[in-house]
Structure formats: structure tokens, C-alpha cells
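anyone seen this seq b4? input:
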Amino acid sequence: MPPLQKRSLLDRIGATGSLLCAVHCALLPLLIATLPALGVTVWFDDSFELIFVAFATLLGLFSVIWGYRRHHAVRALSLLAPGLLVLWLGVLYAPLHHSVVPHAIVMTLGGTLVGLAHLANLRLNHGHVHDASCAH
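predicted toks r here
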């Protein structure tokens, strides 16, 4: 697989995962009442969320920094950094983490920013043209 296709795949996975995370966080207050009846509460416990945020952080940093080295535009980084900061705040700051609606809002915002960072990186990678002025 050519490097551009690998970058594109990483950003597509990252954007999809982050935006699915944002949808999950937005719908979480509605789902909380039904989770015990469905028997899937283990999917939504604290360790799942922490693992997902750690994975989103590693994938986001790897993908966006790899893209930045190619296109040298800070747009994706400027979305990724606050998105990850908000996600980690939502996971690690106990008073926020244990407040259902504020936690859902914060995690939705963070997941959306990370997803938008991947989409911005995808666009920047596809818009980058190699020419005589390009060092890559």
C-alpha cells in the first residue's frame, strides 16, 4: 500500500472512530437507563472509555503528525490538540467524569474535534502537491 493510502486509511479510521465516539457520548444519557436491560454495561465502563481515549490519542498524534510532516499546515493539529485535551479532561477529572450530562457534552465536543482533525488532515494530505519547492 503506498504511503499516501496508508495516511488516508489512518485518517479515515481516526475520523470514523472519533465521530462515532462523539455520537456515543451525545447519546449516552439516553442509553444509560437501557444498558442494564441490554446486558452491555461492560462496554461502557470507565476502563473502556480510558482505553478508547488512549487509542484515539495515539492514532490521532501519529496520523496528524505524520500528515503535518508532509503538508506543514497546522489546521489539523489546531483541532487535534484541544480535542484530546478535552477528552482527557472528561476521562480524568473525577467531578466532570461522574456528572452524566456535562461528561457527555465534554466527550462529545472532544470526539468531534478529534474527528474533524482527522478530516482536516485527510484533506490537507490530498491537497498537497509535490513540486520543486517541496522538501518531501
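The chain has one domain: 3-127. The radius of gyration is 17 Å. kinda curious what u guys think
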